[in-house]
Specification:
The radius of gyration is 19 Å and the shape is globular. It has one domain. The protein starts with a helix and ends with a helix. The protein has helices at residues 2-24, 27-35, 39-51, 53-84, 89-111, 118-139, 154-187, 191-204, 209-219, 221-237, 239-279. By secondary structure, it is mainly alpha-helical. The chain is 85% helix and 0% strand. It has 11 helices and no strands.
Length: 280
């Protein structure tokens, strides 16, 4: 009972603290923090804490493979949201949530039938990740806005934290029952993203969440880095010290990745401008 209370308090606390930091410090820090493994990080931590590091290490390749199911989850969420946006925020939120979760478990079930190793899982995810970038750039037409103009109320922050806590309690509680393979796959479920999407879609319809999904489609590679670091660093440094180092390295990776992405975007924009100028 005590560990469940800890899961709930830690989940809510992290969401509230990070949300406030992201609004009151600066946009760069906000981007770094929202790209870090929040829900996934909590799931992996508590599974390793309760079931042991060796148990979690067996599930990490499946967690990386599960990121492919996460890609299908948010793309399905995005597409179903476009089709249901005229049916009202409540129905649309229910429809997109159902379609997204169903697609996640369907792909996860198919993945569980494969022979998965760490190398194969990384290759599988990288292939899916590249296709994911292509698809999201076709789907995303700039609808919505990239940031909320109003501050989140404490009740909204608490609701997001409660959703994450509920999902994490379910995932970590089921770990001993479903085994390391499914525990790894379930740990990849983006509980922090899902909680944010639910609140934003319910409150603002199509205005906010498409931009969140678009950004996450690029940032999801950080979760692969997180899993790989866990695989090699948990046995060396133990759970707590390893986590401190892992989050630091994930933050550095995300900072580097964003710099590379911005440079590539600038080059693409310059090339596009040059082509338009040549035609003129």
């Amino acid at each position: 009972m005590e560990i469940i209370v800890v899961k709930i308090l830690v989940s809510i606390g992290i969401v509230v603290i990070l949300a406030e930091l992201s609004k009151r410090v600066n946009p760069v820090l906000a981007g770094l923090l929202t790209g870090l493994p929040l829900g996934t990080g909590l799931s992996v931590y508590f599974i390793a804490y309760e079931q042991g590091i060796d148990f979690m290490l067996e599930g990490i390749p499946w967690g990386i493979a599960g990121l492919s199911a996460v890609v299908v989850f948010y793309l399905t969420y995005y597409i179903s949201g476009k089709f249901s946006k005229k049916m009202g925020n409540i129905f649309s939120t229910f429809c997109t949530s159902f379609c997204g979760i169903f697609s996640f478990f369907l792909v996860s079930y198919l993945l569980q039938k494969l022979e998965i190793s760490l190398t194969r899982a990384v290759i599988l995810f990288l292939v899916v990740f590249i296709f994911n970038l292509r698809i999201i750039n076709i789907l995303y037409d700039g609808e919505g806005i990239t940031a909320q103009k109003t501050k989140s109320t404490f009740g909204q922050l608490l609701l997001r934290g409660a959703i994450i806590a509920f999902i994490i309690v379910l995932i970590t509680g089921a770990a001993s029952i479903v085994g390391s393979e499914w525990a790894g796959i379930l740990s990849s479920f983006p509980s922090a993203l899902f909680a944010l999407l639910l609140v934003l879609q319910y409150e603002g319809g199509i205005r906010y969440y498409p931009s969140v999904i678009y950004g996450f489609a690029y940032g999801i590679s950080t979760l692969m880095v997180f899993y790989i670091l866990c695989f090699f660093m948990l046995p060396l440094f133990g759970l707590n010290w390893a986590y401190l180092l892992i989050y630091l390295l994930c933050g550095l990776y995300l900072f580097w990745f964003n710099k590379v992405r911005r440079c590539l975007r600038k080059q693409h924009d310059h090339l596009k401008f040059f082509k338009l100028g040549s035609r003129g």
